[in-house]
Design goal:
Layout: E1 2-10, E2 13-20, E3 34-48, E4 51-55, E5 60-63, E6 69-84, H1 88-94
Antiparallel strand pairs: 1-2, 2-6, 3-4, 3-5, 3-6
Length: about 100
Amino acid sequence: MVTREILSSEGSVMVVKVRLAEGFAGDVDQHPEEQVTYIVEGQLEFDVEGDKRILNPGDTQYIPSNSKHQVKVLKECVLLDVFTPIRKDLLAESR
């Protein structure tokens, strides 16, 4: 399960709080926006273009524009995702 809360979407930056349930495996994602993910709680495996890393609280992951990426949640997670420019598709979903 995934829940998202848009915390800010001003100027060219968007900050989204994301909760991911333990055992969740996301689909491969790809978007033109650059992304930085900060791990607040939990643990996950992040795969960016085949480079896999285990991330823990305090860790960050940079995802370049148009890079294929995927997450697998090892322990329930709370993340902060920062996007630039703003992801209009996420804005549309939140309405």
